[in-house]
């Protein structure tokens, strides 16, 4: 009887194990960049329609937060609008995490102003001077005689990191800048302030704001792909090691020219091909 009871208990335990697995199976968690967010949302929407047994949850918060979530094991995919930093790689390896990057699209970081602003083009040196607080009136760059209100992203943002490297040349934005936590927040702030300047990913452009050229070149799908726009960049998804299962299938879907890459364009970003 005792041996029979043990066998029965073992069978129940195994059955319960099989029952509990599907609760976790088919769930994909994505965290990170608000720039990549529209792409992830569009791709997930289509993928879940085609694969109703898969549930994908997505949240923003910035590239740094996404990579941190990958390092602490709380996400399957980290969205990032920048490449992972050497310090993050070292920390990952210490924790037994091995981040694998997948470039999923291209983007342009676009300087934006209020539509009433007459300025159309700024050089990289002018943008740097504005964000350092050295140029504080639009008149200095050919605009109206009005003070400049500087809008920037916070330091957890991958867009901020690319801006800091390509525009600020590793110098920090001056303390008077108003920091925003997302691309959408920058759009809102600039659209409501005729003196403001900000910068956003290409997918967030809308009628209530005006895009500026940089060094005479407008950020677009064409100038991102041909490399002429000075603030173009790839967008990434990172996984812990080579992905498997549903995560692997989802990323392959995104990278497929006939499938997921079509929806990169519909999210107003630049497909890889």
Keywords:
273 residues; globular; D-Maltodextrin-Binding Protein, domain 2; two-stranded parallel ribbon; 38% helix; alpha/beta; 22% strand
Short synopsis of the structure:
By secondary structure, the protein is an alpha/beta fold. It has helices at residues 2-24, 37-50, 63-71, 86-94, 124-131, 158-166, 183-191, 221-225, 245-255, 260-266, and strands at 27-32, 55-61, 77-80, 99-113, 121-122, 149-153, 178-180, 196-201, 210-211, 213-214, 232-240. The protein has two domains: 2-106 and 234-266, D-Maltodextrin-Binding Protein, domain 2, CATH 3.40.190.10; 108-225, D-Maltodextrin-Binding Protein, domain 2, CATH 3.40.190.10.
Describe the sheet with the most strands: 9 strands, mixed
Assigned CATH architecture of the largest domain = 3-Layer(aba) Sandwich
Uncertain ranges: 1-25
Distance between the termini: 67 Å
Pattern of helices and strands? HEHEHEHEEHEHEHEEEHEHH
Count of extended strands? 11
Shape: globular
- Radius of gyration equals 22 Å
What name does CATH use for the topology of the largest domain? D-Maltodextrin-Binding Protein, domain 2
| Structural domains: how many | 2
Any overview of this molecule?
The chain has 273 residues and is of the alpha/beta class. The protein has two domains: 2-106 and 234-266, D-Maltodextrin-Binding Protein, domain 2 (3-Layer(aba) Sandwich), CATH 3.40.190.10; 108-225, 3-Layer(aba) Sandwich (D-Maltodextrin-Binding Protein, domain 2). It is built from ten helices and eleven strands. It has helices at residues 2-24, 37-50, 63-71, 86-94, 124-131, 158-166, 183-191, 221-225, 245-255, 260-266, and strands at residues 27-32, 55-61, 77-80, 99-113, 121-122, 149-153, 178-180, 196-201, 210-211, 213-214, 232-240. Strands 1, 2, 3, 4, 6, 7, 8, 9 and 11 form a nine-stranded mixed β-sheet that branches. A two-stranded parallel sheet has the order 5-10. α9 (245-255) packs across α10. The longest helix is centred in the first third of the chain and has 23 residues, at 2-24. The model is unreliable at 1-25 (pLDDT under 50).
